[in-house]
Amino acid sequence: GNSVTQMEGPVTLSEEAFLTINCTYTATGYPSLFWYVQYPGEGLQLLLKATKADDKGSNKGFEATYRKETTSFHLEKGSVQVSDSAVYFCALTGGMGYNFNKFYFGSGTKLNVKP
Amino acid sequence: NAGVTQTPKFQVLKTGQSMTLQCAQDMNHNSMYWYRQDPGMGLRLIYYSASEGTTDKGEVPNGYNVSRLNKREFSLRLESAAPSQTSVYFCASSEGDRVNNQPQHFGDGTRLSIL
Which of residues 1-40 of B touch A (CB under 8 A)? Predict the structure, then answer.
């Protein structure tokens, strides 16, 4: 079945460091891929998305590229800030022979950024 | 622009009590979902409604019931609350469009404690 695997956290970085959070997926066909961010005490907010192979989603300095050959959608940011401290979720929906209305989420990666 | 609204935000129940969590969206979305989020467990799908008039079980439906009251509203009921149902509950909605791959939108959550 469909699934999403993302790296275990927590990830602790100093301000202005480079961030990578790995995400790989299993799905038939051509799913759409998303990154969500959850700040403490809040719901999930869409951070970026990509709907087809080689698409690059970007928002607020974060980027992720849809790599079908490696079934990956890694999240990157060149210079993190303390305000980026949150939990990040990778997710997918769609795909051949798949109930399009269902979404699958990774387990979340907590990011701590120190001043 | 309200998006997805959940009520209440916090609730404490005694074991065996019943309660209904309310969710409404103002984006004219077809699909709606209920998740629970436990520490270290990520998001788990309880029930979803692909369209008005339909509901389906997710990963963890036991102990819950749902009602898709109309296109806007999707409620979650605990008939006899148990301590294992202590969690943060999130409602989400999406267009459910198989062509445009739109993401889910989340409410701010209901923090439920069962003593």
Answer: 4, 31, 33, 40
Q: CA nearest A96 in B: which residue?
A: B98
> Is B101 within 8 Å of A108 when comparing Cβ atoms?
no
What's the rounded Cα separation, in Å, for the pair B44 and A103?
10
Bridge-based pairing of strands B74-78 and A3-6 is unpaired
Q: What is the pLDDT of residues A27-86, one digit of tens each?
A: 877 889 999 999 988 899 999 999 889 999 999 999 999 999 999 999 999 999 999 999
Is there a contact between A50 and A33 (Cβ–Cβ < 8 Å)?
A: yes
Q: Identify the CA nearest to B35 among candidates A28, A29, A72, A91.
A: A91
CA–CA separation, B34 and B12 (whole Å):
19
Contact list, A46 vs chain B (CB under 8 Å): 103-105
8 A C-beta contact, residue A38 and residue A92: no
